[in-house]
Amino acid sequence: MSFETFEPTAGILLYIAAVFLATGVVKGVLGIGMPLIAIPLLAGTVGPIAAMSLMAVPTIAINLWQTAQSGYMGGALKRFRAAYPLLIGGVILGLFFLTRLDRGALFVLIGVIVMLIALSQMLPFNLAIPQRWERWCTPLVGIVSGLLGGVSSFLGPLMAMYLVALRVTKDQFVGAIALFYLIAAIPFYLGLGVSGHFGWTEFFASAAAAFLIWLGVLAGQRLRARASAELFRKLVLGLLMIVGANMVRKGLM
To answer: How many CB atoms lie within 10 A of CB 75?
Structure first.
């Protein structure tokens, strides 16, 4: 489905706006990646690929800002240089499959990935990767993350677990993950454009989404000081499990 053939009602538009605001709130409270929240909630309304295209402006804008603010761009470019070409190649290969899967298969694929990501976040993660292994692990994580990103736009969780296992500092983590997102997002959305899934209509809709998400982030930052972050995280992950299971159900029907 594309926005050229999408016929929204007032109720659907309100739902889409609410999803973007909620995505921003979750981002503001927990910092969880925006596509992971928005895409499964929107896929049943506008279609999976159209949902991904709506995240173009928010994804590029926030990761460009975080990369610039981190002060770690040069360090990340040098340390993880072996990952970037494979990340881009993986995104392109993943996109090839994304644009050729039928709607049912795409729903099942994204639903399973969402549930696996939510489950991984519920389990304790204490893996530590020795520095001597980094030379070999970085390219592998790059290609696998690229494939996941290309077929679903969810490259962040695997990359985040890898950076945590490397025991990078908080500032290094933010700068490195934002740069990975930025480098992957450019070929991903260019590919959607070439395949006819991202044009000016999608761009302007995505810009409007960015504004709503920004409002949600501001609200989430205020809420973070008052709410229990751990309880909020469990509720969000539980919701993702339900949404992912529902996507699988729809895909199999």
So the answer is: 16
